[in-house]
Amino acid sequence: MKTLSPADRMRLLKFVCSFAWTDLEVSDAERAFVAQLVDRFHLDQEERSEVARWIESPPDDEGIDPTTIPAEHRKLFIDAARAVLAADGVTESEFEGFQIFEELTR
């Protein structure tokens, strides 16, 4: 995660938040996972506010294109998406969405 640029960190968080919304509800466990990432990334107040908006309401689709993830970061994005989904148990719709995401990042 240290190799991510500030823009890539925010892109990762946007992906993670969008996965948290897959079942149309963000659980406390998913919120806690996102909060841990925010702390790990040492985001500034503006960035923290943006992530908070993504947790309260699903992020827009702009910038959420799995095919644009740099090859060197794909595993990290996949692992982060998998982790947020596992935070409260994976539903069938979440699993299906994750499989599509994983296929598109290959």
Uncertain segments: none
CA-based shape: globular
Number of strands: 0
Strand content: under 5%
Number of helices: 5
Largest sheet: none
What's the rounded overall pLDDT mean? 91
Helix content range? 55-70%
Radius of gyration computed on alpha carbons: 13 Å
End-to-end distance: 19 Å
From N to C, what is the helix and strand string?
Answer: HHHHH
Judged by helices, strands and strand pairing, the structural class is: mainly alpha
Care to describe what's here?
The chain is 63% helix and 0% strand. With 106 residues, the protein is mainly alpha-helical. The mean pLDDT is 91.
Summarize the structure.
With 106 residues, this protein is mostly helical. It has 5 helices and no strands.
SSE layout and pairing:
Elements: H1 6-20, H2 28-41, H3 45-56, H4 74-86, H5 92-104
Helix pairs in contact: 1-2, 1-3, 1-4, 4-5
Keywords:
5 helices, 0% strand, 106 residues, globular, mainly alpha
